[in-house]
Design goal:
Blueprint lengths: L9 E11 H6 L6 E8 L3 E7 L1 H11 L18 H22 L6 E9 H5 L5 E10 L5 E8 H17 L3
Length: 170
């Protein structure tokens, strides 16, 4: 983060499961948003969900709040236009770090494509996604980040790695 109160946070994997996008939308509040990105070279679409407590902790940090300043409870109302811009900024800052971590297992690139509301995700084509839930350690409130990527992206990659390892095709 680019302010004088930069805080070290850590993402810890809580769990993962495979679900349909419509089911994923049911886990969201009606006013929630998701950052959307494409996983290149296939162009498959992934989603990043920031929990409201995480978003508002990050927002306070971006505005210069120190580690001891506790934000007010995050509202459940629609995000304002300025909040949507900050949400987008936070997701865009997290994508390069995510891409760097994925580079260790697959040659992928992530390209930001925009934001989607819960209603758009609920109406999207039926598709299976692998959803990973992370706990954010380093803030005073319990915070979560969810990452949803098409299941086919990992199935194909890990199947190829297994075949190469098992049959010595490397």
């Amino acid at each position: 983060l680019s302010n004088r109160h930069e805080r070290a946070i850590q993402l810890v994997l809580i769990g993962q499961r495979e679900i349909e996008l419509a089911e994923l939308a049911e886990l969201m509040l009606p006013t929630d948003l998701a950052g959307v990105f494409q996983v290149q070279p296939k162009g498959l679409e992934g989603l990043m969900f920031l929990s409201r407590p995480f978003f508002f902790e990050m927002l306070c940090t971006l505005f210069g709040a120190g580690a001891n300043i506790k934000p007010i409870r995050p509202p459940t109302r629609e995000y304002t236009r300025i909040e949507r811009r900050f949400y987008m900024r936070i997701v865009k800052e997290m994508l390069p770090m995510l891409e760097e971590q994925w580079q260790a297992i697959a040659p992928v690139q992530l390209a930001w494509t925009g934001m989607q509301a819960r209603s758009v995700i609920a109406e999207s084509e039926a598709r299976s996604s692998l959803v990973s839930t992370f706990e954010v350690v380093g803030f005073s409130e319990p915070c979560r980040v969810r990452l949803a990527v098409p299941s086919e992206l990992f199935r194909k990659h890990f199947l190829n790695c297994f075949i190469e390892d098992e049959f010595g095709l490397r």
